[in-house]
């Protein structure tokens, strides 16, 4: 074993433990520390026994055990614990040393921390790490951002431990300055919320409207996973539907229908609101989880409020085919909206994001990995300045072909009282995007009527604002709060 370690890690929970095992398997010596120091000894004498780990029992000991420039990675709970560890590390580090946050931190915190650590003469990286326990051990997707000067020092380690696509390209590359890495991870998590919700809506349609058994649904997802919808989330849904409990019955049907969330989907939706981007599918996916958590209220409502009885009389095989189109169409919208958000954030925060590269980083190792992402990379390789994913000929043609089945699914679900908030939100966005003239002209008239907020006219140049005295009782004074 080397006398000094290549990198140190704080936090030996599930992700940290598996990530350091991954690093060690690639030939790196890793120093490990945990706030509960007994866990350090438990790890090095257990899963880490006989391997190239250096057990440390204090922050000072951890920093003293590292090669220069020192590289310390934290995998701890987001929020105050990250700030606390940064302050504990700083006295034991020197200029050009690197602090890395590999947790699910909110990107504004990473922007702030990067500036703070750089003000002390050190470098900082905030990196998204996706793939869960399995990804951490066998190859995650990694999305690093922060101090650009730090990238060369960690590049070999990060890219060696990350997942690889078919040609060996690592699912890890430098994202951008400040909080860019954690922003991209946040959008990844938002898209994850969206993908999971539309899959769940398809499941409910098959179960409640088509009356399919778990085994029948398993076969459908199995077939879908061998085509255009091939993805990790479709794959695990296939497996979940086939899993039986101790009584030989589908376990999924015995799980309480209240969804948890850690907040990253909400962060994505709030960022979209802050930046004025219509992230409708992901927003509805977050709210769907919130509604699921109101279990007691829903039970009471189910006894008090009547909706339509389920009475599907159509072609079951055709509806399943339509469902596939609906899933694919909504999935395209989810990614299109996510990319739209990243593009706006890049302008706002002056990041130089590589959109094709981001698709490649998501191509393997992460929760949203799918064959679909290869087509996104191709779209941005063809046109790095692509304004919207639906403007790429491939995605334009796919979504136009999918819309008929998608519309039939939404119409049938709504007619039968099956909630499909994400599938319908995505379809409404698609229709809104392709509509040259929306009814916002009336909305602007309403705003001007009650608040003198002014409006522009189609027969005058953009940038000229008008106010009308709609009642004849108002004056000529207009508000200055008009925002496009």
UniProtKB/TrEMBL annotation:
Active site: 185 (proton acceptor), 192 (proton donor)
EC numbers, comma separated: 1.1.1.44
Catalytic activity: 6-phospho-D-gluconate + NADP(+) = D-ribulose 5-phosphate + CO2 + NADPH
Family matches, as Pfam families: 6PGD (PF00393), NAD_binding_2 (PF03446)
Protein name: 6-phosphogluconate dehydrogenase, decarboxylating
Oligomeric and partner information: Homodimer.
Function, in words: Catalyzes the oxidative decarboxylation of 6-phosphogluconate to ribulose 5-phosphate and CO(2), with concomitant reduction of NADP to NADPH.
Keywords: Gluconate utilization, NADP, Oxidoreductase, Pentose shunt
């Amino acid at each position: 074993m080397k006398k000094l370690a290549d990198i140190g890690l704080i936090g030996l929970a599930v992700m940290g433990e598996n990530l350091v095992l991954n690093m060690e398997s690639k030939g790196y010596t890793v120093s490990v520390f945990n706030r509960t120091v007994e866990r350090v000894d438990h790890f090095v004498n257990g899963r880490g026994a006989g391997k190239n780990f250096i057990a440390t029992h204090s922050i000072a000991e951890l920093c003293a055990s590292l090669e220069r420039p020192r590289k310390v990675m934290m995998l701890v709970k987001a929020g105050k614990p990250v700030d606390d560890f940064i302050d504990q590390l700083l006295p034991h580090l020197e200029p050009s040393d690197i602090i890395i946050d590999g947790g699910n931190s909110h990107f504004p915190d990473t922007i702030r921390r990067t500036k703070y650590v750089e003000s002390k003469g050190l470098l900082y990286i905030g990196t998204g790490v996706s793939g869960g326990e399995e990804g951490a051990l066998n190859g995650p997707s990694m999305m690093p951002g922060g101090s650009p000067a730090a990238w060369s020092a960690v590049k070999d380690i990060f890219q060696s431990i990350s997942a690889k696509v078919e040609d060996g390209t690592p699912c890890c590359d430098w994202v951008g300055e400040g909080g860019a890495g954690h922003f991209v991870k946040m959008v990844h998590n938002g898209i994850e919320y969206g993908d999971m919700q539309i899959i769940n809506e398809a499941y409910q349609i098959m179960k409640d409207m088509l009356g399919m058994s778990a085994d029948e649904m398993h076969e459908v997802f199995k077939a879908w996973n061998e085509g255009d919808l091939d993805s990790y989330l479709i794959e695990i849904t296939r497996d979940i539907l086939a899993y039986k409990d101790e009584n030989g019955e589908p376990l999924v049907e015995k799980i309480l229908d209240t969804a948890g969330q850690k907040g990253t989907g909400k962060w994505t939706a709030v960022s979209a609101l802050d930046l004025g981007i219509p992230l409708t599918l992901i927003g509805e996916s977050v709210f769907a989880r919130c509604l699921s958590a109101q279990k007691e209220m829903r039970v009471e409502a189910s006894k008090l409020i009547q909706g339509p009885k389920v009475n599907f009389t159509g072609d079951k095989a055709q509806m399943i085919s339509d469902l596939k189109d609906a899933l694919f169409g909504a999935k395209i919208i989810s990614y299109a909206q996510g990319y739209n958000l990243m593009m706006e954030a890049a302008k706002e925060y002056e990041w130089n994001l590589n959109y094709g590269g981001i698709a490649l980083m998501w191509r393997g190792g992460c929760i949203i990995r799918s064959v679909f992402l290869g087509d996104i990379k191709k779209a941005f390789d063809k046109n790095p300045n692509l304004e919207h994913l639906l403007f790429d000929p491939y995605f334009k043609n796919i979504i136009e072909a999918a819309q008929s089945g998608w519309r039939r699914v939404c119409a049938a679900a709504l007619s039968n009282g099956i909630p499909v908030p994400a599938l319908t939100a995505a379809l409404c966005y698609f229709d809104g995007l392709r509509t040259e003239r929306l009814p916002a002209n009336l909305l602007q008239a309403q705003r001007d009527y009650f608040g003198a907020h002014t409006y522009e006219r189609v027969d005058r140049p953009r940038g000229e604002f008008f106010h009308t005295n709609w009642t004849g009782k108002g004056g000529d004074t207009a508000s200055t709060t008009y925002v496009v």
